[in-house]
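Exercise 7b. Backbone tokens:
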């Protein structure tokens, strides 16, 4: 009985410690939010010194995938129930297109459920979650106007196309404005952000600009890539130009002036925010996908300064997207270069170190 009491006490202490760590992290995140809301127009690489330890720690592989089977993670959404939704390319621009893409859900316990399977030659790129829990995903079907576009999953799991896009469009990142019920789509080939009601309809060009366009001479001519709706604006990355842009949405729903938040980030892919209220960004640099720069995850502060927080030394292999939930950072790795190591990584955000970075 005494041993049982000791075991129970140790278990209660351990639970209490986990609770404290979790809630201290949340409190620090709120503090960080307050510290980083002010934005500045400058953008430059990080030049600060010591920042109180690593911003991201405890990196581990949460799920490993089979590259030969087309399990190439591209995008991620962290869901409120602790699960994640992953887009699997099935193929990629430098891979043989022998497998169809998948949209996959991974539960907190690691159980995998394939929600959607596409056709060989297609890619499932971006995915997003509506405020009502609806799952949206971009199906990039080159040359096929009958399938190219954005879909949602109905209550019974059946996919339904909500926006058709031209056959030469490249639908990639998705973002949902819950207040207006608008779905935005980053077109990586045309340099366009499309908009459509979440209920479905004709997609219209919401913004067309050279800042969103690809660079034709690049090995992978990809422009607008990652897309997030955040604090009344769309944030979009340009893969080829290495820029992170912010586009405010006016009260009338039109695009405001484009502001470059950061530059000098070749192959910047998808991104996520520290909290719904903070403008601190974690962005993936997918350098090895085209041998054009490093594989990194960088933290970008609102004034445009940035610094790497994870590199290939941490196991990154074609990192394509990030997601944040609490103090956890999720990273999708496509594993494009040999020896091919596609996976989902999970790490912990060190808020004191992040705050120390803000102080610089």
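Sequence design result:
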């Amino acid at each position: 009985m005494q041993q049982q009491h000791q075991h129970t006490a140790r278990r209660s202490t351990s639970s209490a410690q986990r609770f404290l760590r979790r809630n201290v992290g949340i409190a620090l995140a709120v503090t960080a939010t307050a510290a980083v809301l002010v934005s500045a127009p400058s953008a430059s690489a990080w030049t600060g010194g010591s920042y109180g330890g690593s911003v991201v720690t405890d990196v581990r592989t949460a799920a490993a995938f089979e590259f030969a089977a087309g399990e190439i993670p591209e995008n991620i959404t962290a869901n409120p129930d602790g699960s994640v939704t992953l887009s699997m390319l099935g193929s990629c621009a430098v891979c043989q297109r022998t497998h169809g893409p998948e949209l996959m859900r991974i539960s907190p316990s690691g159980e995998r459920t394939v929600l959607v399977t596409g056709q060989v030659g297609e890619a499932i790129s971006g995915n997003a979650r509506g405020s009502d829990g609806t799952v949206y995903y971009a199906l990039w079907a080159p040359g096929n106007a009958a399938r190219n576009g954005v879909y949602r999953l109905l209550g019974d799991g059946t996919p339904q196309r909500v926006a058709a896009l031209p056959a030469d469009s490249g639908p990639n990142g998705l973002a949902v404005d819950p207040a207006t019920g608008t779905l935005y789509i980053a077109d990586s080939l045309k340099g366009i952000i499309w908009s459509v009601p979440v209920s479905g309809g004709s997609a219209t060009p919401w913004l067309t600009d050279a800042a969103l366009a690809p660079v034709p001479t690049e090995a992978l001519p990809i422009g607008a890539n990652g897309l997030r709706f955040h604090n009344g604006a769309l944030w979009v990355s340009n893969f080829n130009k290495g820029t992170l842009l912010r586009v405010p949405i006016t009260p009338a729903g039109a695009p405001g002036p484009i502001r470059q938040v950061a530059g000098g980030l070749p192959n910047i892919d998808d991104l996520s925010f520290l909290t719904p209220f903070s403008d601190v960004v974690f962005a993936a640099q997918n350098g090895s996908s085209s041998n054009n720069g490093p594989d990194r995850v960088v933290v970008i502060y609102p004034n445009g300064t940035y610094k790497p927080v994870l590199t290939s030394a941490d196991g990154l292999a074609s990192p394509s997207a990030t997601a944040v939930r609490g103090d956890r950072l999720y990273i999708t790795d496509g594993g494009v270069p040999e020896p091919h190591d596609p996976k989902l990584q999970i790490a912990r955000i060190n808020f004191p170190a992040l705050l120390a970075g803000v102080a610089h």
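Instructor comment: The chain is about 10% helix and 40% strand. Residues 1-51 have pLDDT under 50 and may be disordered.
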